[in-house]
Amino acid sequence: MFRPVLPVRTRRARSQVAVVLCAALLAGGCARSSEAPEPPARPGPEAGGARVSPFEGLTGRPRPTPGTTFLLVGLDGRTGLSRAEKRRLFAGGEGCDCTDVMMLLHVSADRRRVGVISIPRDSYAEFPPHTEPPATRTPAPGTPSGAAPSGAGTGPVRHWGKINAAHQHGGPALTVAAVEHATGIRVDHYLETDFTGFVRTVDRLGGGQVCTDKPLKDDKSGLDLPPGTHHVDGTGALQYVRARRLDPPGDLGRVRRQQRFLVSLMENLFSGDRTASGGDGFSRSARALLRSVRTDEGLTLPKLAGLGRALRKLPSSAAEFATVPIRDFDHRVPGWGSTLVWDEPRAEALFAAVRADRPIVPETRPGEIRPVPVAVAPRKLRVSVAERPGAEPGSAARLAMKLRANGFTVVGVTAGSGGGPAQARPTEIAHDPRLRRAAPTLAAALPNARVREAEGLGRVFRVTVGPIAGRVVPVVHDRSGVEGAPVTGDELSCRETPPGG
Description:
This protein is an alpha/beta fold. Helix content is about 25%, strand content about 25%. It is elongated and about 75 Å long. It starts with a strand and ends in a 13-residue tail after the last strand.
């Protein structure tokens, strides 16, 4: 499944959402015009190429805004999969007909910029009025587990729940309505695919490239990826974008991996050595890829081809990626379990940028230093600082003062003895393996320090200052920002230092 890395110019489409993006916006550059005919899609609810009506009956919608916004959805749908296919795809159990992946993709009015906002699937959101199917009746906030929402079965109901369940409760129309209600962003077009459509299309496009600087293993998704850069087929790509049980666990890292796939896709499609076929080639590519997705009726082949022509030369720096900021990562709700609550002020700033057709990555002023987001609050780290032989006298005290100003709990400072030979080594951070999850917080504040694990150090991080003291940068406790802060595509690229998964 994992094969040696191929040259950059052979990169192909990258993720379930990347496949949808390829079909929706970049059709001219995705599929090879010489590809063999695709076998007929499996009939039934997961067959690709169908049209849906996601805007039918919607009322009170946000006003139209400059540019074009797409809602890209990947369904956890397993209907029609054989037992062997479920084993191969690690898709055991029952599908929920809910959205496993959800992204808003905004193309600027001048078609010079693409912004992608990932919506975590467990986001706690309000479902606009809808008729509740009996099989999906769920409790309103504060009602006992298993209780039906007020008015269930008697007419339109309105309740809160995990946003990924909107599709189960009301199909594409309720999914669009819930996203529009939560974000205030008007959706112009809707696309969805599923597990089999994703695998089939990635294989058709030649697989994809992934990179990581640490082992990635998730028994639930089947992912087993050593450090380095790798080429994966459709099944391997599905394992990569679905994995959640990594370190740290959860959806934000998973969402960021999906975004990394999109970056690789764009680099492949927009590279100078790949010129899209013109005329009928655009239409053939769009038609082939649309076999694996379902779209709204207004998303025509000419519209896809036109967007593909306009966007195919954009560099990865013209693409921006963010995840909706989270305030509470474990908001418990009867009947729904653990949910995610958005950080409303920061989320609204992100949505307002899209509505105004502005970049979603904040502009950095010359000389401005932004704090590095960290997942564990600095105050929770107990740090001792000592000088190595050869270090400048007083360097430990100065470093300790900077760490305190950064919020760290400094529990001891040891000056150098002045004896012994100088050891021209950089500052070192040593910690017990049990503190592994918190170590990135201190490493972010001391980016030039070497980090190592050592048994028996207890609950204190030991910082040893050498002649090469290095710099101290500000950090801020922002778990959302670690994997979800707005960035440009070149910051997520495999062409840079391999990301941490």
